Every structure is written in C-alpha cells, then in structure tokens.
Amino acid sequence: MDVTEERVARTIHFEDEDLPLSLLPKRFAWCLLIVAPEGDVAGLAIFLYNYAAWSGEPGLYLEELYVVPKYRSRGYAMQLIEAMAKEGQKAGCVKIEWVCLKRNARALAFYSKMGGQVREDWALLYVDEAGIQKLAASSKGSQ
C-alpha cells in the first residue's frame, strides 16, 4: 500500500462518537479457562481488546492459546476461540488477530480451518528488554 498524507486522510473514518467505550470491558487482559471432565484445567486463552487504527472499530488480540498436550484433539482450542469470539461480539469487535510460528504446521492448519488468514503483507516486529532500555535512555522528548 502506498501511503501518502492524502490517502490517509481519505482512508481514516474515525470519530470520537464511534467509540463504543461503554461496551468494552475495563480490564486490560482476559483469560478463559477450559476444564476437562477429569477436573483438570485443559487449556486457556488470553486475549486483549484493541482498536483498528484506520477505522476506530474495536477488535481482539489473542495473546495466548494453549491446550495441555494430553487434552489436545478434543475440540478445546475451538471452544476457547468460540468463547472469546462471543465476548468480542458483545463488545462490537470486528476482528481477531494473533501470531503463530510459521513452523507450527498443525496450528496453522487448525487456524486456517476455522477461518484464520495469514497476512503476507505484514511483518511481526519486536524490541526486547535491552532494546526498550536503549530507546528509553535515548529519548529526547519530555517526560
């Protein structure tokens, strides 16, 4: 996408009154647990609410989806994602985003089957703790 100031001005359609803040939970992160019939916690999903920068619409970011190995292939991951989607739907969310290791073929197949799409046009970027310290130390801005 060729981004210019003019293109950005035409693309963004975000108004303060568009924010359904009253619908969004006040917590930073949410954790869903699924319990197996045996009584053990079989898996979890940790997610956050966010916004689509270009439209101002709310979305979800799936930070972690994990099912204990002995409980895999029982549908628990899908149940967790479905429960998360229901929570997002209540808040008017229009998207769910997450990352997955490219080498995790099993997870990628699962996500594809449930409707997940790989975004080839985006790169995952990362700054570690040392990088954060370096950036913060070199800050010329006001505190």
TrEMBL record:
CDD domains reported for this sequence = NAT_SF
Cell membrane listed as a keyword:
no
Protein's UniProt keywords contain Protein transport: no
Q: Matching PROSITE patterns, A to Z?
A: GNAT
Keyword set, alphabetical order: Acyltransferase, Transferase
Which terms in the Gene Ontology molecular function aspect does this entry carry? N-acetyltransferase activity
Among InterPro entries, the record links this protein to: Acyl_CoA_acyltransferase, Diverse_Substrate_AcTransf, GNAT_dom
What sequence ranges are listed for the domain N-acetyltransferase?
1-137
Q: Which PANTHER family match?
A: DIAMINE N-ACETYLTRANSFERASE, GH14572P-RELATED
Please give the name of this protein.
Acyl-CoA N-acyltransferase
The species this protein was found in: Elsinoe ampelina
